[in-house]
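User: Here's a chain of 289 residues. Predict its fold as tokens.
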Amino acid sequence: MKIDNLANKFLERIAIALEKIAPTDEIQSDLNLADGYVWQADRGWLEPVKHINKVDISLLQGIDKQIALLLENTERFSKQLPANNALLWGARGSGKSSLVKAAHAEVNRNIKDLSSRIALIEIHREDIPTLPNLLSILRETPRPCLVFCDDLSFDGEDTSYKSLKALLEGGIEGRPKNVIFYATSNRRHLLPRDMMENEQSTSINPSEAVEEKVSLSDRFGLWLGFHNCTQETYLTMVRHYMEHFELDTKSMDWEKEANTWAITRGARSGRVAWQYIQDLAGRLGKSLD
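Assistant: Prediction complete.
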């Protein structure tokens, strides 16, 4: 009996301690604090981001057509005009996510009222199944919201793409009028070829199975393709960065350096150009702020 009483008292103390550290109120999301937010799915909360990591849209080179199309689509959305969900797909490091953030900043540049500015909301790939919870919060605000998922793709037995399809176009409630969805992916159809082929070989109706998966990309009204850039475009990117940050390269062969940098990484892209600029600025003792 004494052991039971001691155990009960011990458990009671644990329960009291847990009550003290447990949150008493549900965390409320406030969409009037910043231009950027990160969706914290485990807490059902939009975490404000005071400084969005972005580059100026003028520094994005070699993707003029993609810039014009996404910028126009985003501007229409900001004016409450019809606009499409967008899928930016293609080569790694080609500026897909940089363009989304740059277009968001460019459209907001001349909008002074915070409540009228587009809120950029990042949702992580693994949190896609919680999109309905996020949308239920966004429905309650009049502020335009751009939900952004970087590096979106699906593998193996992952079936969360089905909920994404419904949220993009279908479902009883549909997508809120104040919400648009942008995603980037290395895959045009968001699913790997072997997954689609496996689905085709094991399905009773192969063509319908493949069409089901391919149709996910069809829910995005705007497709923007990004491809590996030429040497000329790559060097143009590097030159614009150097001019923007006023890097003094008169005493060096920066073109040879930049090409060597790209060769060692096996690719030419905006990301590789930026990595070279960071290395160059560091050697020159120059800040990139």
